[in-house]
Amino acid sequence: MSVYKPVKSRFYHYDFQFKGTRYSGSTMCTAKSDANAYEATLRKQIASGLKVVPKITLDQGFGLWWEMVGQFEGNAKTTEGQLEHLRRLLGATTFMHQLGFAEIERNYVARRRGEKAKGRATLISNASVNRELEIAGRVWAYIRKSGYDAPYAEWRAHRLSEPKERVRELKPAEEAKLFAELPEDLAAVAEFAMLSGQRRTAVIELLWNRVDLDDGRAVVRTKGTGKRTHVDHSFPLTPRMMEIIRSRPKVGPRVFTYVCERPSPPRPDRPRRLAGQRYPFSKQGWARKWRQALADAGIEDFRFHDLRHTAGTRILRATGNLKVAQKLLGHVDISTTARYAHAIEDDVRSAMLAAEKSRNSPEPAAADKVEKRANSKR
């Protein structure tokens, strides 16, 4: 038998020739005896003249894709969770070739839409379901390309409608109230996000070694497209942004940290935390203080991500140049930046209203105008 286990793979692979044609691939078996049996069956099928398209279960297919592709992506932890939801609802032992439109719509889409978002009382969003469907489409395509029986490819037919993202700008009066309520360390994060237009994760994970105060630039990791899930994005620093950075205590690799108020025990993702010590911000650990500050300031319908919207809107209003806003925000496609065009439209509308108002204002009577001209000639 010719089965073998590649380095860093948990599955045995086969590799043999029959009448000058080479056959190779994964047996999707973790036990050598099972792998030998798989290869023996495959050899018999090929020798009998059958066109062999090996079957593969969902668990095996996901395992192969994760091993060869998924684990190396920048957002691997998120992807792993998305795969788990698909595996749980579609059935780990279900063969991939058995899943068609009806099965996916009934067993995954309908059931997933009825589940609540983690840690919330609301149902999971359509956008989250769509992201998981996109992952499923990528897995099926990879497994199919790898020679296994996974024919289904109509994943876009399951897409759910998503509400058009609204652009919420922080008004000057709201800004003053919000920053009066935010704790000092969180206020520094929020103001830097509002001035730079960078995403929440990019700001809280900003590293000291990626900040050049002499050159007035910083580099963050941000979302990419396609296989490049994360890319470096460089942006200039204004004097106020550099002032914020200089005010931050340099106690670790990250620029933005906070003072721990209450001790907490160790967790799998971080060590024990002591009161009075500084630690880097987590992605969600500050959410309660953020919501409390919004409530105390009387600000409704405002998310942390809206600070990015505020930056985009203000830069576009100041310059009237979509390209400038696109460069700051790091948008790959300018059509994404176009959502901020309302800022220019608002300014145009204000100018039009001012012109209309001046047109409708009462003008001096013609006789008065003649008299004024006559008096001016004397």
UniProtKB/TrEMBL annotation:
SUPFAM superfamilies: DNA breaking-rejoining enzymes. GO terms for biological process: DNA integration; DNA recombination. Residues 165-353 form the Tyr recombinase domain. Residues 354-378 are annotated as: Disordered. Keywords: DNA integration, DNA recombination. GO terms for molecular function: DNA binding. It holds the Pfam family Phage_integrase. It comes from the Bacteria. Gene3D superfamilies: Intergrase catalytic core. Residues 356-378 have a biased composition (Basic and acidic residues). This is Site-specific integrase. It comes from Sphingomonas montanisoli.
